[in-house]
Structure formats: C-alpha cells, structure tokens
Amino acid sequence: MPIREDLRGRSPYGAPMIDVPVTINVNENTHPMPREVVEAIGREVHQVALNLNRYPDREFVTLREELAAYLGHGLSKENLWAANGSNEILQQLFQVFGGPGRSVMSFVPTYSMYPLLADGTNTEFIAGQRAEDFSLSVESAVEQIREHRPNIVVLCSPNNPTGTGLELAVVEAVYEAVATYNGITIVDEAYAEFAQDPSQTALTLLEGRDNLVVTRTMSKAFALAGARVGYFAAAPAIADAVRLVRLPYHLSAVTQATALAALRHRGQLLANVEDIRAQRDRIVEKLTELGLKPAQSDSNFVFFGGLENEKEAWQALLDDGVLVRDNGIAGHLRVTAGTEEETTAFLTSLEKYLKG
Ligand code: PMP
C-alpha cells in the first residue's frame, strides 16, 4: 500500500463497539433524549429537508450566535467556530497551527485522539508527563514547555481519562510560557458542564489572550454525540485562520438544525446533567467503600485504580453485560456515569467480581 511512510504501522482510534445492555465505555450521555427535544429536532430537520438541494450556510451564523449566547462571558459570534465534533475542531486547529516541522504537546495520560490527530496532520506529538497521581503542577508544566517549545499545547480539563479538572492557575501559567514564543494553547473542555465548580472555566481567561482557544462539544452534556457538533471560543483571528483549512460547507444543514434545536431546549437537556453528577458521585463513594481508588471527578466518568488485574475485571464486567473502558493503564479502568439503573448494574457486577 503506497500510504505515507509516517502513517505506516499506526493504529486507528479503537474504543471497542460491543453490543451489550450497559454500554458505559465512551463517556456518552446515556440518559434518554427528552421526547419534546426529539420532536423539536424532527421539526427543524423537516424544515431544512425542504432545502437540501442547496448548500448550507457556510458560516453557520445563527448557530455561532446561539453558541455565544449559551457560553456567555461577553462572547459573540466572531469568537465562535463549530465543526463535526470537537475532534474535527482539534483537527482543524492542528492543520492551521501544527503541520510538518511543528509540534503539539499534551500531558499523558490524556485523550487518546491527540496523538492520532497529530499523526494525521503530520505534526510531531510530544508526550508531556504528569506526576504519579496524574496531577499536573505549574512548575512541571512550564518546565516541560520551556524544554520542548511546542507550537501547540493541549490541556484537557477535565482530563480524559482521569476525570479531574486543572486549576486555572495552571492554564494561565502554561499560556504565559507558550505565548512567549507565540505558540497556541488549547484547553479542551469537552466535559466542562459536569465540573464540581463550572465557573472554573478557561472561558474566563479568553479576554486579552489572543492565542488561547477553548474547545467544547455538544456530545456530552447536550447528549448529542450522534449529531457530531463541537465548537471553540477564541479571538476572532483564530476563527479566521481556521477558515483557511475547513472544507466548504463542512457543517451540514441537518447538523446545524439539530444543534440549534438542542440549544433552544437546553433547559431540558441540561437537567440530566444533575442526575449524571449524582451518579458519578455515587460511583466514587461506592468504589472507595469497596477499597478501590477513584480519582476526583469533574466529568461524567470515573477513573479508578486499585485493581489487581484490570483486564480480568473488564472481562468480568463484560460477562455481566457491562462495557467499561480499559485505557491501558495498569490497575485502572474508566467508567461513564450512566443512568441510575446502569450505575447499579456496574456497581453490582464490580462488587460481585471483587468479592469473587
Ligand atoms: N475531547 C475529549 C477530552 C473527549 O473525551 C472527546 C470524546 N470522547 C472529544 C474531545 C471528542 O468529542 P466529540 O468529537 O464527540 O466532540
């Protein structure tokens, strides 16, 4: 196969897709979509179907306006950009600010797509390190950035797979270190709505920081993973730069209509966030009681250690119809906080396995 030499031997993104009753392995929102929202999406999509012979609004102006209104923090449509999931958002940012001869750094363990997106855009991936407890201090982050001078730094907060949010002081310090040589700092806030304190968002740092990008998604809190809508907030010049690499009309009319309907019904959709938070806290509490070591979570999932054999535990859960995620970290697994019933199924199965 005459593929690019640098892609030879690489593996694609590969969270297992197994059809089992309790699928809590990819941090989706598993709460059923409220009926009214389903109907509203249906109506909006029906409306745009009448005009599907035409290309969609290439600038998705209404969607950017409504996303800005949702985020607040004095943002307007000029600050907003959207794409097919925050994965595409990150890909576009790597295309513009990375590329051959350039590098992107993130701190592992972190979201497994960063190195893959780096490969795809021919950007060197630098795996920055965290402390043994997976935390990241100002001193350590700044020292590693000074050593490698990456063109892009991606901070995942709350971090996937560990679940914990970064203090804003770390984001500020990283930004200062990266901005000294005109690099870009991206804060991936895919799980921001689930944070213990949602006011601790990097959106509060955007003003006056022209090289800062905060990415978000509608896949998690908005329960819209299937629609593929991610977005970012940044200085208008960043959105302009991304226009150089986006495909024309990349956000379909169906996608725009779906996202708008969901945004306009956010009261109902975000009401489930409270229950997901409660299930998450319940998981942390019960795992602690079972003698395991769950990390503090600001997200809709819990990362926990203390397992003697995580592969065996993963299989035992699967045998009971519960699919969780093995991120390849010894003694650890990650579980999404689902509905109350799903959470009960997970906790019951895990307890049974531990008491074996
Ligand atoms: N960032 C993080 C940290 C994630 O965990 C995910 C999805 N698992 C994404 C980005 C991408 O999500 P999406 O493309 O659905 O917006």
Automatic annotation (TrEMBL):
Pathway(s) it belongs to: Amino-acid biosynthesis; L-histidine biosynthesis; L-histidine from 5-phospho-alpha-D-ribose 1-diphosphate: step 7/9
Tree of life domain: Bacteria
One GO MF term attached to the UniProt entry: pyridoxal phosphate binding
Enzyme Commission number(s) of this protein: 2.6.1.9
Transmembrane feature ranges: none
InterPro entries for the chain: Aminotrans_II_pyridoxalP_BS, Aminotransferase_I/II_large, HisP_aminotrans, PyrdxlP-dep_Trfase, PyrdxlP-dep_Trfase_major, PyrdxlP-dep_Trfase_small
Subunit structure and binding partners: Homodimer.
HAMAP family in UniProt: HisC_aminotrans_2
Family (UniProt): Belongs to the class-II pyridoxal-phosphate-dependent aminotransferase family. Histidinol-phosphate aminotransferase subfamily.
Name this polypeptide is given: Histidinol-phosphate aminotransferase
